[in-house]
Amino acid sequence: MENMDYDVGKAFAAIENELLDSMMRNMKRHRVEETKEGFQWEQWQAKQLAGLEEYRRKHKGKLEERYEAINSKMRMAILQANAQGKMAQEKKILEAIRKGAKLHRATDKLQGEFFRVNDRKMNALLDAVESDMKRAESAILRMHDDKTRRAIFNAQVYANSGAGTYEKAVDMAVKDYAAAGINCVRYKDGKQVNIKSYARMALKTAGLRAYLTGEGAKRQEWGIHTVIINKRGNPCPLCLPWVGKVMVDDVWSGGTATEAKKMGYPLISQAMNAGLYHPNCRDSHTTYFPGISTPPDKKWKKSELAAVEKAVKKEARQQYAERQEEKFDRLERCAMDPDDQRRYAVKKKQWEKTSNTLKEKKEDDILKLKNEITDMDIHLDTLKEKFEKITDGYSYDDWFKEFESIEEGFGDVSGDNSFNELKEIDAKIKDFEKQKSTLLLRKEKRKQLDTGFTGKVPDNELDNFNKKAFEQIKLDTGYSDEKAKEFQDALNEYFGGDYESILTGEGTTAKVIREGIDRMPVYDGTTYRGLYFSESSDYDISQFTNLKSGDKIPSKGIISSWSSDKMVAEAFGGASTKSAESSTVILECTNNKTGVGVQHLSKFGVREAEVLSGTDYEVVEITKESKYDYVSKRKDLLYFPDDLYALETELKNQIVCTIKVKEV
């Protein structure tokens, strides 16, 4: 979901600050005067209460207008999430159908029923959120009134107890209110939370459920009820037992207990009763198409579980430090006594430093990971150079394309020093590659970044585009200006230069690119690669069509170019009637682990939606059909409307080979 850009917490934080500031302005404006009779507390209290009533009278209507605006924006964000869920799900369903899923859309009558049920669910969700927010909002001014009255009367109590100056007495009286802020929301367990934290939680939770409601309506429309809880690097602890599992959705898609029992999958409702999709949950699910989707990876290694626990603790410490920083910021702003102001300012700076340190530590951990990956690349390059020298020019990768082992290529010379050295190098390379794979799996993930252009970047915009790309490279890689420039130059050479020689790893350009992409965030999504085979092609398509499950995908070199858009891959592979006399291979990796989205760094942008990968791939499943059968299911692949009939013979003589792959 990408619609939660409205910061509802920030809106309520502004209201909270205004209320606290108004209280303190009143306290300072009606400062008590010392007379012969002493402090005139009764008169002071009367003035404070009058000021409070005046503020309430003047601002009650204005606050209600602001609440209405906030609620309207929250409603819009929730509806937007629901629409996104519907659109995203329909796209996935249509893709699954193209891959062979046997799904049938419901009749118009049933669709109408689905829409009515979905509307009722959405209305119930919107009404519940709006009702909860209105109750919380109505409590804001009540709490402010109560806390301010209490502070007014407590100020005299503290002064009479010998607190010292008027300023000290007021600071003691308002301390509790300033420290907690407007924590007017009380949960069933008695815990009180600040209004801005509650509002953020409410919007995030409702947005997720609206998105899932939209997805569920589309699944129900097409009669598919199975889902899989996405496995990600940092799941919620309550959701962890369900992550990676296939389930029957009886909450949003209309699945049933009978269906779940028959298929042997648990129900979403059972998981929710056990904690899945708790308030503020970050996890989600996607549709599972039996026979189409990649089987679930539901096993967690001890190291992965330990990393999850560590990440949860780090995040909790970070959030606590930020709350403490906000607390002492409020106390400092509300303090009247100079000593109190200084004391709170010191505390605020301490927590600010702690918060920044934790952020920096997180960034340092990310940078450390990137540096460890680069170190592995350097070790591997050094070992492979040694290997090439000993074998008189055989690269390590070429050796194992031709031979199964060191022994097969070298002969039975176990006593030969060169042979023993090669065996030792091979063992080290395999060990370093294994270590590198583990490190790569710890990188952060993200979708493609937008270039700001719908197609190729215009020539007159290239300079600005490259400047932004350069800054993003530094941010993603942690490189210095010099290293970032070297990487960007290598990418620009790759995107618009000697593409083939770079792919095969000739020169240093490919190594610079590989080391750079190893440091960038992983693309979060399915990747595709289209390959074109005509009679004049240098490569025979049989090297792909003869593959079977478990075989490695043939590779040209240390970098391969993929796309996050299937239609782009189809275009590169010639999977249309425009290329009626050529065959096509479409590679599809549904569980991308290391490929890096570089759409935002290429002047071709979304036109190619490029993802660069430096890993090997293995066949999971292979499907072969004539190009005629392939394009007949996809009218968008017809160059002219009557191509299917005009080019029937040519299309039936060519094939489209779709290969599902996984990284190895």
What's the SSE blueprint?
Layout: H1 8-29, E1 34-35, E2 38-39, H2 41-98, H3 108-160, H4 166-180, E3 185-186, E4 192-193, H5 195-222, E5 226-229, E6 246-248, H6 257-263, H7 268-273, E7 285-287, H8 302-334, H9 338-390, H10 396-402, H11 406-410, H12 417-440, E8 445-446, H13 462-477, H14 481-496, H15 499-503, H16 509-518, E9 522-523, E10 527-533, H17 542-545, E11 560-563, H18 566-573, E12 583-589, E13 596-597, E14 610-613, E15 617-626, H19 627-632, H20 643-646, H21 648-652, E16 655-663
Parallel strand pairs: 8-9, 12-16
Antiparallel strand pairs: 1-2, 3-4, 5-6, 5-7, 10-12, 11-14, 13-14, 15-16
Protein architecture, described:
The chain is of the alpha+beta class and 664 residues long. It contains 21 helices and 16 strands. The chain has helices spanning 8-29, 41-98, 108-160, 166-180, 195-222, 257-263, 268-273, 302-334, 338-390, 396-402, 406-410, 417-440, 462-477, 481-496, 499-503, 509-518, 542-545, 566-573, 627-632, 643-646, 648-652; strands at 34-35, 38-39, 185-186, 192-193, 226-229, 246-248, 285-287, 445-446, 522-523, 527-533, 560-563, 583-589, 596-597, 610-613, 617-626, 655-663. A four-stranded mixed beta sheet has the order 10-12-16-15. A three-stranded antiparallel beta sheet has the order 6-5-7. A hairpin with a 2-residue loop joins strand 1 and strand 2 (38-39). The protein is globular and about 100 Å long. 33% of the residues are buried.
